[in-house]
Design brief:
With 190 residues, the protein is an alpha+beta fold. The chain has helices spanning 14-26, 49-58, 67-84, 96-104, 108-119, 123-141, 146-152, 158-169, 173-179; strands at residues 2-9, 30-35, 38-43, 62-64.
Amino acid sequence: MSNTTLFIKNMVCDRCISAVKQLLENLDLQVRKIQLGEVEVQATKALDYKTIDRQLRSQGFELIDNQKSQLINKLKSTIIKEIRSDQPHRKSSENFSTFLENSLGTEYTQLSKTFSSLEGRTIEKYIIAQKMEYVKELLMYNELSLSEIAWKLNYSSVQYLSNQFKKETGLTPSAFKGLKAEKRKTLDKV
């Protein structure tokens, strides 16, 4: 029996983790460790990557096989986890680029080049898009004030958050709250 790490695209939330775990266990793989975008499995026989990928794709996931894609997937997972964390891992004085460099053990310039070449946008744009989707979600839940949301997402001011929200969505946060009918994107589409 050997342990193998699988890298999986589109794992963006706890439900994704549960779905992937169940899917892999249904394929008689023992899940040793699982987190967003990455699963360590133990198998009694050689892995059938084609079957694993086919099953993953049937649920909206995808097996990643090249190193650049694996790095980008890990980068995205780290960003999503950090934005949505109740207790962020980065220090309030630490910027996202330093945090990502330290978390992934790769120079930010390299991360940035690889991300832009594969994704067609910058890491900064991706971070903003993820934050805006989370702000939409928090506004829809109506449990936090805009001030609390700004603090939670480490914005320097409510005004800065409001301006960025309007720039990205075309609506002010209060106008968005009034709509509530606007469909949110799934995180893998952001």
